[in-house]
Structure of tRNA (guanine-N(1)-)-methyltransferase:
Amino acid sequence: MKFHVLTLFPEMIENAVHTSITGRAAKKGTISLNTVNIRDFSVNKHMRVDDYPYGGGAGMVMEPEPVYRAWKSVADLRENNGKKPRCIYLTPQGKVLNQTLVEELAMEEELVLLCGHYEGIDERVLEEVVTDYVSIGDYVLTGGELAACVLIDAVSRFVPGVLSNEESSQFESIQDNLLEYPHYTRPEVWKNRQVPEVLLKGDHKKIQAWRMEKSLERTRQRRPDLLEKNRPVTTAFFSPTGGTRKAAEIFTGYLTQNPRYLDLTRRKLRKKKIRFSSRELLIAAAPVYGGQLPVTEEPLFANLQGEGTPCVVMAAYGNRHYDDTLAQMKKRLEEQGFICIGAIAPVIPHIYSSVLGKGRPDEEDRKILKKFAVETKKRLEKGRTEGFASVQVPGNPDPEPKQMKPVKKTFDSALCTNCQSCVQKCPVNAISQETLEIRGDRCLNCMCCVKVCKAKARGYDCSQVRQYLETHYSTPRKIEFF
Ligand SMILES: Cc1cc2nc3c(=O)[nH]c(=O)nc-3n(C[C@H](O)[C@H](O)[C@H](O)COP(=O)(O)O)c2cc1C
Ligand code: SF4
Ligand code: SF4
C-alpha cells in the first residue's frame, strides 16, 4: 500500500508514520510513504501558497494552483488503466471514518491524502481532484496532518504483513460494533485485585463466552450507540462435501467474529423453524446442482423465517455455471420475509472433476470475498438509515426442474465395516440402515457417502460427465457478486 500525502508540513507525517508499527512496515516495504510539499509547487516568487478569501472574513485560503500541481505530480505518475488513485481530503465536513471505511480503503493499492491548512482550500481545486471527504471526528484540528496520520495508521493495520499476524487486524470486536473485553496479564493479584477466575482455568469455551459477555456489557455501558448497530450474523448452509461450507465460512469470517452456523445438510435442522428479527443478518449458502438449487424433501431454507431481515445469498459452483440458483434463492428467501441485499457466486471444487474449481477459493478469490464483505457492511450501514434495497440477480427464479442423469455408484460389501456413517450423513436419508442400499429416487448424487466412507467401500464412476465438463468448462471463472 502506497500513501502519498500532499501537505505543507511533510516532517509531521514522516515523524509519525516512521515510528512504531507503521515505521517497521515502511522499512519492510509493506507500506510506503511519499510526502509531497505543496509549497514546492507555489506559483509565487515568495513561495506563498495562500491568499485572502474573496468576500472578506478571517483567515487565509490555500490557492488552487499549487494544490493542483502537487496532486498532478502524483496522480499523473500513478495513473493506472486510466484510473487515478482515490484522493482523500481530510476535513470535519467529511464522512466520519469508521472501521468499514478503513477496511474499504485498505483494499486500494494507493491513496492520495490531501491536508489543508488555514481556513481551508479553494473549493474549485477540491472539486477537481478530491474523490472522498473524510473526517476523523466532530472537532477541528489546526491542519489535516494529524488526521492523515490517524487514517494511515488505521488503514495500515489492515494491510497484510503490517501486523505480525494478519488475523490480529480482524481480531477486534469493533468489527461487530462491540467494544473489546478487558485484558489482564501477570501478576494474578495486583493491589488486591484478582484476575477473573475463568481466565486462569484454560477452558477455551468458557473463556470465549466470558469475553463475549464482557464485550456486550462494556458496550452497553460505554457505547450504547454502537450496540444499536450490532447485527448478529447467521450463516445457514447446505454442503454435502464441504466446498460450499468453506466458501461460506471464509466470507462470514470477513464479516463478523461471532457467527452462528446452521448446517442445513443435517435433515433435522432443515425441519426446525428458525425465526430472524430485522436486526439480524442471514447468509444463505448452497451448492449449484444442474444450474439450480439442490432439491430436498424439506426445501432448502424453507424453514427460515425473516421479518424484513437482510440476507445475502451465495451459490457455490464447480466452475461450469450457477445459472438460476441465485435467482431461486433470492425469490425463496424474499417470500419468507427476508430482503436480499447481496448475492455472490464463488467457484469451488467440482465433485465430479479434479480439474474444475481445483484449489478454489484461492488467494484472488479471498480478496473478492473480502471486497464483497466490505460492500455488504456498507449496504447494511446504508440500510439502517435508508431502508434495505433488494438487489437484482441474473437467472430465472422459477426454472423448470432439471432431470439429471444419475452417476454410477459402486459398493464393495467386503470392505464395509457397517459403521453407518454414510447412512447418518446422507443429507436426504437415501441409504437404507439395514441393507445400506441407495434409494435412487431420493439420491442427490452429492457423493457425501463416498467422501465419508473411511473404509473406501463406496465409490463412483462419473467419467462421462467429467470428460464433458473438462472439455467445455476448464477455463477458471471469476467470482461474480451483485
Ligand atoms: C448433482 C450435481 C450437480 C452439479 N451441477 C453443477 C452445475 O450445474 N454447475 C456447476 O458449476 N457445478 C455443479 N456441480 C458442482 C457443485 O456445485 C460443487 O462443485 C460441489 O460438487 C458441491 O458442493 P459441496 O462440496 O458444498 O457439497 C454439481 C454437483 C453435483 C453433485
Ligand atoms: S446416497 Fe446419494 S444423496 Fe445420499 S450421500 Fe450418497 S450420493 Fe449423496
Ligand atoms: S460409511 Fe462405508 S463402511 Fe460405513 S456403513 Fe457406509 S459403506 Fe459401510
